[in-house]
Design goal:
The complex is a heterotrimer of chains A (637), B (287) and C (143). With 637 residues, chain A is mainly alpha-helical. Chain A has a domain of 292 residues. In chain A, 72% of the residues lie in helices and 3% in strands. Chain A has a two-stranded antiparallel sheet. Chain A is globular. In chain B, helix 3 runs antiparallel to helix 4. Helices cover 37% and strands 20% of the residues of chain C. The model of chain C has no long low-confidence stretch (mean pLDDT 86). The chains are: A mainly alpha (637), B mainly alpha (287), C alpha/beta (143). The interface between A and B is large, with 63 and 74 residues. Strand 5 of chain A pairs parallel with strand 1 of chain B, so a sheet runs across the interface.
Chain lengths: 637, 287, 143
C-alpha cells in the first residue's frame, strides 16, 4: 500500500497541483502550492529509491480514463493544427486518432495486466524528474515574475504556465513507470502537449511557429508508437513492454524497437529532428531548464535504455550508435558558432544526448553504464546552467554572450554558479567528465570496424566541447582591471534553486563512486554485467581507473594554496599593456592617431570563416534522414 | 602499499619543474649554438624564475594569481598522474584544466594582447587535444589499457608498432613548447607574438608560476613520449630528447604560421598519421 | 635572489623618436657577434616583465606620456639606461620646440651612454655598470 501511494503521489500530485495553480489567482497561494509540491515530490522520490522496484496492476477504471484522455488530447492537437493552419499537425494527429480508435475498440488489445512497472531505471529517472524538476519550478516562481514584469503584462499568465510545468512532472513520472506501450505513448503525448503549450506561452508569432514545429516533430514520435503498438501486438499478442522484451527477437519485434528508436530520436532532438529544440529556446528559460535539458528530452534516451538490452548485437543498435556519434560531433562543432547563450546550451544538450545515444547503441555492459552515468550527471549540470542563464538574461536583458563579457564583475554570484556549472560539464574531476571518460573507453573497446569512425567522431566532438565552454568561461571573467565586484541582489527562489542544484552537482561528483555503485550499476546489472567497480571512492574499469577522491583532494589543494599565495603576495593592481598609450582613468582606452581616444573592443571568437553553419545544418538533416531510412531498411531486409 | 615506490613517484612529480627548467636551459643553449652564438648558462631559466619571484608584485586582478598557481598546480597534478602510472586520458584532461586556468587568467586581464593570445591558446588546445586523444586510443588498441602501468605491462616497445603515432606527437610537442611554426599564442623568450601573447599581463611572481608550470608541462609531455620505449627507460629518454632536439631544429628553420594553418595541419596530418598507423596494424592483425 | 637578478636581466627597448642609429646598435648587441643573451639578457617586449628600460632618442612632448606609462608599468627593481646622446641630453635636437631634452626629464635614469651612435660595446658596458649598480644597491641594503 505504501509503495502504491508513492506512485500515486509521483504521478497524481503534480496533476492536482497543476490544476490548483491554474485555478488559484493569488500569487502567494500558487507559490505555496509549488513549494509544497516540490518538497513532497523530492521526499517521495527519495522514499521510492529506498523502496526499490514494484509492479502494479490498476483497475479498468484507470485504463478507461487514459483512453478518454488520449482521445481528448488528439482532438485538441487536431484543433490546434486546424487553428494555426498546420497540415503536419493535423495529418499526424489524425494518423494517430484513427488507428488508436481501431486498436482500442476493434482489436481491443490495449489491456495489460502489469500496467505499471517500477524498476531501478524508473527510479533514477524519478529522482532526476522530481529533484531537478522541483528546483526548476521553484526557480520559475521568481523568473516568471521578472519575465512578466519585462513584458509589461497586465494580467498574469502564470497560472497557465505552472499548470503545464507541473503537469509535465506528473506525465514524466507516469512515462517512466508505464509497462503498457499504450500508457507510455499516452504520457509521451502529454509531455508533447506540455512542450507545445510552454514553448508558445509568450504568444508571439515566432513562439507559435516554433511550438508547432516541436509539436509535429513530437507527433511523428506518436505515430511511431501507434505503429509499434500494432506491430508489437501482432508479434506477441500484447503491448506490454515486459512481454515484448522477454519474447525471442523476431523481425516484427525488431520493427517495434526501430519505431521506438525513431520516437526516441524525435523526443531527444537527435538528427534530423534537432531543429525543434533549437526553436524551443524562444520559450521562457524555466521551460528550457525543465523540458529541454534535464527532464523531457531524457524520455527519448530513457526509451532507448529500455529497449537496448534486447537488441544487443543487431544492426539496429549500431545504427543508433552511429546516429548518436554524428549528432554529438556536428552539434559540438556548431555550438562554437553560436552567440546566443541558450542556443549554445541547446546544442550542448543535443550533443550530450547524442553521446548518451552513442553509448546506448554500442550496447555493452561498459557503454550502458556510461550512458546511465552521463544521463544522471548531465541532467543536473544542464538544468543548473539553463537556470543560471535565465537569471543573467533577466538581469541584464540580453542573451548574446558578447554582452555577457565581464559578467563576473556585474553579477558575481550568478556568474560563479554558471562558471561552476560549465566547469562541471567538461572538466575532471566532475561527473560529466567521468561519464565521458567511460564513454571514450567504451567506444575504444568496440570492434575496430565500427569503432574507428565512432572514435574519430567522439574525439573531434570532445575537442570542440572544450573549446566552446572554455571560451565562454573566459568571456565571463574579462574584467577591467581594478573593477570592483558589485553586490548582487539574488532573490530567494533563485538562491534556493541555484545553490541547491550546484550543491547536488558537486555532491554527486565527489560521491561519484557511490552514485555508480548504488544507482548506475544496479540498473546496468538488470541486463548486463556491470563493468565499473568502485574501490576506494574511485572508479575502476579493469583496464584503467579514475581516482576520483585523490583528484578532488588535489584540485581543492591547488585552489586553496593558490588563494593563500594570492593573499600573501597580493600585488598592486596594474593597468593593461596598451603599448604605453593608456589613457588614465579610463577603462582599457588608448590614445591613437590625432590624439583620439579609442576604447579597446574585444569580441568573441566564433570561427565563422572556418565553420559553415548552414551547410552543417543541412548535412544534419540529410544525414539524419538517411540514417533513419537505413534504420528501417535494416529491419525489413 | 609500497611506500618507497609511492615516495619515488611523488618526488619525481615534484621534480618535474626542475627537470623541465633544465631542459629549457638546454633549449636556449642549443638554439644559441644553432645560431652561432654562445648562449646563456644551463641554469638560466632558474635565474629568470628567481628574479621574477623577487619583483614587486603587480597583478591585474585578485583572480589572476590564483589562476596562475592553478596552471602550475594542475600541471603538477598531471605530472603526478604520470609518475603514478595512471590513466593517460586523465593526464590529458587534467592538463586541460591547467591550460584553462592560464587562458582564463589571460582573459581576466582585460587587455587586447592577452585576450587575443588567450583566444589563440584555445585554438591551440582545439588543435592538439583530439590528436593526443587519438594517439592514446591507438596506444590502448595495442596494449589493451589506457594506463601507463598498462604500457609497462605490455612489455614490448611501442615505437615499433606505433611509429607514426610518435610522429603525430611531434606536432603536439611543437605546439606545447610554443615553438615555430605553431607558437601563435605566445612564444618563448625574445620571440614576440602579440607582445607576449597569452603571457602579456603576467608579471613578477605570477609570471614565475607560469614559467614553472610551462616547465612542468614540458617535462610531463616528454615523459609520456619516453613511454614509447617503455622496457628501457634510457632509450625512452633518448627518444624524448631526440624529439626535443628535433623541435628546436624545426623552430629555427620555420617561421611562425597562422592559427588556421596550425588547425588544418594537426587535424589532417596528425589524424592521418595515427589513422594510417592503426589501419596498418589492423590489417596486419596486430590489433 | 641578488645573484639571480644579476644573471637575468630582461630589457624593454623603447625608441623615443630616435633616428634609429642607436636602436640598431642595441639590437646588434643581441646578434651572434656580441651576444648579450649569454648574460641572460633578453629583449622582452612587455614592460611588466622587464627589468631594464633601454631608451634611445630625445624625450619630446608627445612621447613623454608613453615613456612615463611604460616606466610605471615596470615592477621594481628596475633601471633605466639612456643610450645615445639624444637620450642623455637631447643631443643635436635639444633646441627643437617639441623636445624636452634628455630622457631624464621624464624618468629617472641610472646609466647614461653617450655617443652618436653608441657602440654595442659601450651599451654592453652600460649594462655591466647597471648590474654593478644593482648589486651595489643590494650591497648597500645589506650593509
Amino acid at each position: 500500500m505504501y509503495t502504491e501511494t508513492l506512485i500515486a503521489v509521483n504521478i497524481g500530485l503534480p496533476v492536482v497541483s497543476a490544476l490548483a495553480s491554474l485555478v488559484l489567482s493569488d500569487r502567494r497561494a500558487r507559490a505555496g502550492v509549488v513549494y509544497l509540491t516540490a518538497a513532497v515530490l523530492v521526499v517521495s522520490s527519495l522514499l521510492l529509491y529506498n523502496v526499490g522496484g514494484l509492479e502494479l496492476n490498476l483497475g479498468g477504471g484507470f485504463e478507461i480514463a487514459v483512453v478518454a484522455l488520449d482521445f481528448a488530447l488528439l482532438l485538441y492537437f487536431m484543433y490546434q493544427g486546424f487553428m494555426y493552419r498546420s497540415w503536419q499537425v493535423l495529418a499526424l494527429s489524425l494518423a494517430q486518432l484513427i488507428p488508436v480508435a481501431y486498436f482500442e475498440f476493434i482489436v481491443e488489445g490495449a489491456h495489460v495486466e502489469k500496467i505499471l512497472v517500477v524498476d531501478n531505471l524508473s527510479i533514477l529517472l524519478t529522482l532526476i524528474i522530481n529533484i531537478v524538476g522541483s528546483l526548476v519550478v521553484i526557480y520559475a516562481l521568481s523568473y516568471m515574475e521578472e519575465h512578466e514584469h519585462h513584458l509589461h503584462l497586465e494580467r498574469s499568465r502564470q497560472g497557465r504556465f505552472f499548470f503545464y510545468m507541473l503537469l509535465l512532472l506528473g506525465a514524466m513520472n507516469g512515462l517512466v513507470y508505464s509497462n503498457s506501450l499504450y500508457w507510455l505513448y499516452f504520457f509521451w503525448e502529454v509531455t508533447t502537449l506540455c512542450c507545445y503549450e510552454l514553448i508558445r506561452h509568450d504568444g508571439t508569432e515566432e513562439a507559435q511557429g516554433n511550438a508547432l514545429l516541436a509539436l509535429w516533430m513530437g507527433l511523428i514520435g506518436g505515430v511511431a508508437f501507434v505503429a509499434a503498438m500494432f506491430v508489437g501486438y501482432n508479434a506477441v499478442h500484447s503491448i506490454a513492454l515486459t512481454e515484448m522484451m522477454a519474447a525471442p527477437l523476431s523481425q516484427g519485434l525488431l520493427l517495434v524497437f526501430a519505431l521506438a528508436a525513431l520516437a526516441a530520436f524525435t523526443k531527444s532532438a537527435q538528427f534530423p529532428f534537432h531543429s525543434w529544440l533549437l526553436g524551443a529556446m524562444v520559450a521562457p528559460t524555466p521551460v528550457s531548464a525543465l523540458l529541454h535539458s534535464s527532464t523531457m528530452v531524457n524520455a527519448g534516451v530513457y526509451m532507448l535504455l529500455r529497449i537496448a538490452p534486447v537488441v544487443q548485437g543487431t544492426t539496429l543498435t549500431y545504427i543508433v550508435a552511429f546516429m548518436g556519434a554524428v549528432t554529438f560531433t556536428v552539434t559540438s562543432v556548431l555550438a562554437i558558432r553560436q552567440r546566443v547563450s541558450k542556443r549554445i546550451l541547446a546544442f550542448s544538450t543535443i550533443g550530450n544526448l547524442g553521446l548518451i545515444t552513442l553509448c546506448i547503441g554500442l550496447n555493452t555492459g561498459l557503454s550502458y553504464g556510461a550512458a546511465v552515468t552521463l544521463l544522471a550527471f548531465h541532467s543536473v549540470a544542464k538544468g543548473l546552467l539553463f537556470m543560471g542563464a535565465g537569471v543573467v538574461e533577466n538581469k541584464i536583458g540580453s542573451r548574446d554572450i558578447d554582452d555577457w563579457e565581464g559578467l563576473l564583475g556585474r553579477l558575481p554570484l550568478t556568474t560563479a554558479v554558471m562558471i561552476a556549472g560549465m566547469v562541471s560539464m567538461f572538466l575532471p574531476p566532475f561527473g560529466m567528465l567521468l561519464g565521458k571518460w567511460v564513454a571514450v573507453d567504451a567506444v575504444a573497446s568496440t570492434p575496430l570496424l565500427y569503432g574507428l569512425p565512432l572514435v574519430f567522431l567522439v574525439v573531434l566532438g570532445s575537442g570542440a566541447t572544450t573549446f566552446y565552454y572554455a571560451k565562454w568561461i573566459g568571456y565571463l571573467t574579462v574584467l577591467p582591471n581594478g573593477a570592483k565586484m558589485s553586490a548582487e541582489r539574488l532573490e530567494t527562489p533563485y538562491r534556493v534553486a541555484l545553490y541547491t542544484l550546484l550543491g547536488v552537482n558537486v555532491l554527486i561528483s565527489v560521491g561519484a563512486a557511490l552514485v555508480l555503485s548504488n544507482i548506475v550499476n544496479p540498473i546496468t546489472a538488470a541486463s548486463y554485467t556491470p563493468q565499473m567497480s568502485t574501490p576506494m571512492g574511485g572508479v575502476d574499469l579493469g583496464f584503467t581507473s579514475f581516482p576520483v577522491l585523490p583528484l578532488w583532494a588535489a584540485g581543492a589543494a591547488v585552489l586553496l594554496i593558490g588563494s593563500w599565495l594570492a593573499k600573501m603576495k597580493g600585488g598592486a593592481i596594474t593597468t593593461p599593456y596598451l603599448s604605453g598609450e593608456n589613457v588614465a582613468d579610463k577603462e582599457v582606452t588608448f590614445m591613437t592617431t590625432g590624439d583620439s581616444e579609442v576604447a579597446a573592443n574585444m569580441s568573441g571568437t566564433y570561427l565563422a570563416s572556418s565553420i559553415d553553419e548552414e551547410w552543417l545544418d543541412r548535412l544534419a538533416v540529410y544525414l539524419g534522414t538517411a540514417i533513419i531510412v537505413a534504420l528501417f531498411i535494416a529491419e525489413v531486409v | 602499499m609500497d611506500y618507497t615506490a609511492t615516495l619515488i613517484s611523488a618526488m619525481l612529480a615534484l621534480a618535474t619543474p626542475i627537470i623541465g627548467g633544465l631542459l629549457m636551459g638546454v633549449d636556449r643553449k642549443l638554439t644559441a649554438r644553432m645560431q652561432e652564438r654562445v648562449g646563456p648558462p644551463l641554469a638560466q631559466p632558474f635565474y629568470d624564475a628567481l628574479k621574477l619571484w623577487g619583483k614587486a608584485p603587480m597583478i591585474s586582478s585578485g583572480l589572476q594569481p590564483v589562476l596562475a598557481f592553478g596552471y602550475l598546480g594542475f600541471a603538477l597534478v598531471a605530472a603526478g598522474l604520470v609518475t603514478f602510472r595512471q590513466d593517460l586520458l586523465l593526464v590529458l584532461f587534467v592538463t586541460g584544466i591547467a591550460d584553462i586556468c592560464l587562458t582564463v587568467a589571460a582573459f581576466n586581464a582585460k587587455s587586447p594582447y592577452s585576450y587575443l593570445g588567450g583566444r589563440r591558446e584555445f585554438l591551440a588546445m582545439l588543435s592538439y587535444e583530439p590528436v593526443m586523444l587519438l594517439a592514446y586510443i591507438a596506444i590502448f588498441l595495442v596494449t589493451g589499457s589506457f594506463t601507463i602501468r598498462g604500457i609497462y605491462e605490455y612489455g614490448a616497445p611501442l615505437l615499433l608498432v606505433l611509429p607514426t603515432a610518435v610522429a603525430a606527437m611531434m606536432i603536439v610537442l611543437v605546439i606545447e613548447m610554443k615553438k615555430s611554426p605553431f607558437d601563435v599564442s605566445g612564444s618563448g623568450h625574445a620571440h614576440q607574438e602579440l607582445v607576449r601573447g597569452v603571457f602579456t599581463e603576467f608579471s613578477g611572481y605570477t609570471m614565475a608560476l607560469i614559467e614553472l608550470g610551462h616547465w612542468t608541462k614540458l617535462a610531463t609531455t616528454l615523459m609520456i613520449i619516453s613511454l614509447f620505449w617503455a622496457p628501457n627507460p634510457l632509450v625512452g629518454a633518448g627518444i624524448s630528447l631526440t624529439m626535443f632536439f628535433a623541435a628546436l631544429l624545426v623552430d629555427n628553420l620555420y617561421p611562425r604560421l597562422t592559427w588556421q594553418r596550425m588547425l588544418r595541419t594537426t587535424w589532417t596530418v596528425g589524424f592521418a598519421l595515427i589513422l594510417v598507423n592503426v589501419a596498418a596494424l589492423a590489417a596486419g592483425g596486430v590489433i | 635572489m641578488d645573484k639571480a637578478r644579476l644573471k637575468s636581466l630582461w630589457v624593454l627597448h623603447y625608441d623615443c623618436g630616435s633616428c634609429n642609429g642607436c636602436d640598431i646598435e642595441v639590437l646588434a648587441a643581441l646578434t651572434p657577434k656580441f651576444d648579450v643573451e649569454r648574460f641572460g639578457i633578453v629583449n622582452i617586449g612587455d614592460p611588466k616583465q622587464a627589468d631594464v628600460l633601454v631608451v634611445t632618442g630625445p624625450a619630446n612632448r608627445r612621447n613623454q606620456r608613453v615613456l612615463r606609462n611604460l616606466y610605471e608599468q615596470m615592477p621594481e627593481p628596475k633601471m633605466v639606461i639612456a643610450v645615445g646622446t639624444c637620450a642623455c641630453t637631447g643631443g643635436v635636437f635639444h633646441n627643437c620646440p617639441n623636445v624636452l631634452g634628455g630622457v631624464d626629464n621624464v624618468v629617472p635614469v641610472d646609466v647614461y651612454v653617450p655617443g652618436c651612435a653608441a657602440r654595442p660595446e659601450q651599451i654592453i658596458d652600460a649594462v655591466v655598470l647597471a648590474l654593478k649598480k644593482l648589486s651595489g644597491e643590494a650591497a648597500e641594503e645589506e650593509g
